[in-house]
Write a structure and sequence with these properties.
This protein is of the alpha+beta class and 121 residues long. It has one domain. It has helices at 2-10, 21-34, 49-63, 70-77, 99-111, and strands at residues 39-42, 45-47, 88-90, 96-98. The chain starts with a helix and ends in a 10-residue tail after the last helix.
Amino acid sequence: MSLVLTLSVCMAPVRAAVISEQQKIDALLNDVEGHRELKFIRLGSIHSSREAAQMLRTKLRFAGGRVKTADQFIEYIASATQSGHTYYVLYPDGRRIPSGQFLRSELKRLTGTPIATSAKR
């Protein structure tokens, strides 16, 4: 009887902790800052991960309460300048990808769930 109970407990679905949208945004900012091996390109200038995170925090602060979700953060704060110039992530091997693509991948990794693009620029 105890073997059956043990197996049923071990086989119970594991549920990930639900995190708030603000926690997701904070995790993305910390993730950007923590990727010291990456460079971030903004308006043709190359920035460190720390500089990129600081700039994104400043933009987020200026956005105030208009940015409520991680998807909105990626779409409106972390993907491009106000004038529409795309931000890029530069890998040590020379690969360059749009920052929105990088952050969606990181969000999926952090939360274990995919995020869909909800808004177009």
